[in-house]
Each structure stands twice: as structure tokens, then as C-alpha cells.
What we know:
- It is a single chain.
- The chain is an all-alpha fold.
- Helices cover 90% and strands 0% of the residues.
- The protein is built from 2 helices and no strands.
- The protein has helices at 3-32, 35-61.
- Helix 1 (3-32) runs antiparallel to helix 2.
- The chain is elongated and about 45 Å long.
- The N and C termini lie close together (12 Å).
Amino acid sequence: MDHSHRVKGMMLxxxxxxxxxxxxxxxxGLLSGxxxxxxxxxxxxxxxxxxxxxxxxxxARGP
Length: 63
């Protein structure tokens, strides 16, 4: 496995983990009525989208 495949794998893991954390924060924020958690979930979602754009750019670059 070369370096680019490892990087892509780590990025996919990071994206998945961020999305899981985002969903957990949304659920907890709604259940507890916490605007701070809901705001943080939006921030984590934007982080996930940034990682996704980076992943797509690396994937479009080729092998």
C-alpha cells in the first residue's frame, strides 16, 4: 500500500468519525436543548465538508 492510499484511508476515517460526532451532537443538543452542542455540530459538519473537499481533490489528482 503506497502513501496516497494510506492518506486517503485516514481521510475517509476522519470524515466518518466527524460525521458520527456531528450526528451525536445533534441528537444530544436536541434532547438537552443545548444551543452550544447544536452550534458545535454545525462547526463539525463544516470540518467534515472541508475534509471531503480535500479527499476529492486528492482523488482527482490521480494515483
